[in-house]
Specification:
Order of helices and strands: HEEHHEHEHH
Largest sheet: 2 strands, antiparallel
Distance between the termini: 34 Å
Number of helices: 6
Shape: globular
Radius of gyration: 16 Å
Strand content: 5-15%
Strand order of the largest sheet: 1-2
Length: 207
């Protein structure tokens, strides 16, 4: 009941309210992004969604336009090419705000495994084994607040599996896990915990 209905209703309502409240700040981010460097304001990228169905994720562009669209962060060697603004919105996750539209459209949830690139085969296979590909990917999740970019693919999949098992163990345990991830994200973002620009273990997708 919680996973199938209540969670989705909460996602839609929260995303709609957040878009209304953040419309002006997002407009400011969009304008600065456009002025800061050449290229489009939004970055669009195909990710693996529920049951590995592909969807287009939205972000504010935070990389040079010359960066390959399907390049994972651990393979990105051009951190010195980023502007101050690009570093700021990546570190503070402001570049993720357009994903509120993905939540509203049903591609994503607020809480869930972070959507992987389709070429991140090791991570996707590991998630297949623990059922983590069967749920909606999230803006943030259990792995995000427990290591983020510093985790290996196997560690991410293990934590994603823990999340899915907890989600399926009754309404209240699932709700408590989602609340723990939601509020835990604020502390992680404010302290930049686990953020790594091209770190040795990172496989979180670029931009």
């Amino acid at each position: 009941m919680y996973q199938k209905y209540i969670k989705r209703i909460c996602d839609v309502c929260t995303a709609a309210v957040a878009l209304l409240l953040l419309a002006f700040p997002m407009a400011i981010v969009a304008v600065i992004t456009k002025i800061d460097s050449p290229g489009p304001v939004l970055f669009k990228q195909t990710r693996s969604g529920t049951c590995r169905k592909p969807f287009v994720i939205l972000k504010f562009r935070s990389m040079p336009t010359s960066t390959p669209a399907d390049l994972p962060t651990d393979q990105f060697c051009g951190a010195d090419q980023l502007t101050r603004w690009q570093r700021l919105i990546r570190r503070t996750s402001l570049d993720e705000l357009p994903q509120l539209l993905n939540v509203l459209m049903g591609h994503m949830s607020f809480i869930g495994p972070r959507p992987a690139l389709e070429n991140q085969t090791e991570l996707l296979r590991a998630r297949d084994a623990c059922g983590a590909n069967d749920v909606r990917p999230g803006l943030t999740g259990w792995a995000q607040i427990n290591g983020r970019d510093t985790l290996s693919d196997m560690e991410k999949a293990r934590l994603d599996g823990e999340y899915v098992r907890t989600l399926g163990n009754g309404r209240f345990r699932g709700l408590l896990m989602d609340l723990r991830c939601f509020f835990g994200t604020f502390g992680v973002v404010l302290r930049s915990n686990g953020f790594s620009e091209g770190g040795p273990h990172s496989s979180e997708s670029n931009d």
